[in-house]
Amino acid sequence: MQAIATKNTIQMKKYFIIALLSTFTAVGANAQLLPTFQLGLKGALNFSTLRTDDGNWLDGSTRTGYQAGIWARIGGAGVHFQPELYFTGKSSKAEFDNPEGGNVTANVTFTSLDLPLLLGTRIGLGPLGVRVQAGPVVSFVVDEGIGQALQDVADFNSYKSQAWAVTGGIGVDISKFRADLRYEHGLSNLSENSNRSQKINLWSLGVGYRLF
């Protein structure tokens, strides 16, 4: 009788462990499927280049800028929508041939309010996950600057106040912290001069923190 009781006790323990693991698995799966909302802060460094379509008129070298703002994430069933809003400082060094002889070099800077609208998916469970995201970016230029020497010979001191780009990249979630690596490809001609198309491409490396 004691042997039978011991065998039954072992079987009950096995059933209990299986039931417990099944419960945790179901809870984890439901946590991925239920819609969630997050809000946080973000800061980043960007490395931008001003370019032209033909690549001959303007030679833009990479310069370092910044990003600072907020982000939100709304998602469920493994897919999420992440709008962001931040101020961005973009800078590039421009150099090209002066028609009167020699080269002209100057810094071109923009300060813009950027609104990325990202769709993505997250792979992971709980506080640890890896993300893939992509989407359009609309930028509203709030300040611009260009060297006077470049203005004098290039006649491209008038810039549009709005521009479009597409961005994509990967990210990591570790508890409340976020890290992202993205590439942004400019689609809009920034210059009012249609004969001299200028677009900005940039890489960004950012960190964020989830407030709730």
What can be said about this structure in brief?
This protein has helices spanning 2-33, 148-154; strands spanning 36-51, 59-76, 79-97, 103-125, 128-146, 162-174, 177-186, 199-210. The protein is of the alpha+beta class. The model is unreliable at 23-31 and 147-156 (pLDDT under 50).
Write up this protein:
- With 212 residues, the chain is an alpha+beta fold.
- The relative contact order is 0.18.
- The N and C termini lie far apart (57 Å).
- It has two helices and eight strands; from the N terminus they run αβββββαβββ.
- The protein has an eight-stranded antiparallel barrel.
- About 9% of the residues have low confidence.
Secondary-structure blueprint of this entry?
Elements: H1 2-33, E1 36-51, E2 59-76, E3 79-97, E4 103-125, E5 128-146, H2 148-154, E6 162-174, E7 177-186, E8 199-210
Antiparallel strand pairs: 1-2, 1-8, 2-3, 3-4, 4-5, 5-6, 6-7, 7-8
Could you state the order of secondary-structure elements as H and E?
A: HEEEEEHEEE
Beta strand %: over 45%
User: Which geometry do the CA atoms define?
Assistant: elongated
Overall pLDDT metric: 77
Class by alpha and beta content: alpha+beta
Q: Approximately how much helix is present in the residues? A: 10-25%
* Number of DSSP strand runs: 8
